[in-house]
Design goal:
This protein is about 25% helix and about 25% strand. By secondary structure, the chain is of the alpha+beta class.
Length: about 600
Amino acid sequence: MKKAIHYTIVPKDLAGHLFEVTLTVAAPDAGGQVFSLPAWIPGSYMIREFARNIVQIRAEAQGAAVLLQKRDKHTWQAAPCAGPLILHYEVYAWDLSVRAAHLDQTHGFFNGTSVFLSVHDQEHLPHVVDIQRPQAEACSSWRVATSLPELKAKRHGFGTYVAADYDELIDHPVEMGDFALATFKAHGVPHDIVITGRVPNLDLPRLAADLKKVCEAQIALFEPQSRHAPMRRYVFMTLAVGDGYGGLEHRASTALICSRADLPVLGKKDISDGYRTYLGLCSHEYFHTWNVKRIKPAVFAPYNLRLENYTSLLWLFEGFTSYYDDLMLVRSGLIDEKDYFKLLAKTINGVARGSGRTKQSVAESSFDAWVKYYRQDENAPNAVVSYYTKGSLIGLALDLTIRSQTRGKKSLDDVMRALWQRYGRDFYGDGPDAGRGITEAAVEALVDEVSGLSLRRALRRFVSGTDDLPLAKLLAPFGVTLVDGRKDARPGLGVRITKEGNDCRLANVHEDSVAHRAGLSAGDVLAAIDGLRVTASNLDTLLARLRVGDTVTIHAFRRDELFSVAATLAADDTPQASLTMEAKPAAAARLRAGWLGRGKV
């Protein structure tokens, strides 16, 4: 391709964690070509300064060096020259996460935002990348996993791949190494499962069978007639570690990290809590294939990857996705209603625990994600509400409202399908809806139009207000009772602890709690209660022997100084809501069946 931007990426130094990248621009800007590396990656709303990992960079043209001047923290400009202009640079890759790049003797992984400089004003051209095998003999059996279209490469092989433009190039992460691989088809579309890391007795066939159910349920949700998926193939790539959790969505793949104990084991047919969590993570990232990768906020169409992109709609794109991730597990038959209600109660309790929900709306939380949600400190529970978890409860509240008021004729599913049809289906096409994002006002109008109800005021109250959602009232027509099961007689301090060796350190002190009123702070290490030593594992045991109203002396260390406080114990106010089902009346059972998937999806 003569009119294309060409990259070669080589895992140059495995022990030094260096990728070497060569970038060739056939026709550089006559005034001096400008290059930059993204400052953030879509789906993770925090400025991460990926350019700091470029170790060295130089430019040449026609065999002669070209002056390359740095203009700011992530931008370079080459001196005017005749093409082709070639950049050579090294990228340090030692971030074991789903957001950046990682390279060692066991595997290589990168997101394009971490390694591929953009060529200003030429981002619209085709982008070709040659992914080369490491030189080390131990890497001779390595394979490649990516959803990038192959140009001159075999499936799962090293070679040349192509993207229509820069935006597509950086939306297909790459994994390389000796990974476990399974493939299944969901409504005719191939889906790869790639597991990197040592996982004894991994039950890949079961994982493929389970993910197939989830994927087909989601495809059918958005395209109930055609069952047409928006990608030609999809890749689930997972790094299994001792302890980890996370995921990042892309247009035809997802990068995941999980604890190896969460993956299914050969011969064990039960669904452990860890495996259920992993399936929920896969379901969440897969749902993003529609909701945020194609249905987008207007400010993301297109992204400006050099600075923050502010939107107050993350409650829709992350929150509603969080609502559907576990819902799709029950609809696809992987978990039952009882398990689903336990997951739902856990979310309700988590939102209720933090007083930040009374100070910040999910619209504000969405807008402030760049400086608050992704930069949480020890006071976050008292200052921040999660647009993921409360956003998921808003999705639940809206779904229940529409279903009950229309007697099951309409639902949030219809809203999501309308969003897909008008804003997502042709986002990457060339029709009138290509590249069109949605605004806050358009979301409100669409909900009313699709449901046939007047919900704008209620939705605005949910999204822009800080009141608790009326979930008990909304669940009642479905034969589901929300029960407050907190144990009033049990004393508590109102803290979250972390274990550091044998020390009991306060990670969070909740506002107006026993600990707060006594003068304890996050970071303090509890030493003793009434003369009895506090360790990382015995705090609950010590408190269980005390009564509400008792005044105790607590010794603690703040930094390296010992101090003591008097604390009057109060009832543990940790939310312990649970959900119970009733079989009658029949109307409730019918509504519940439609909601949880025993009716039509």
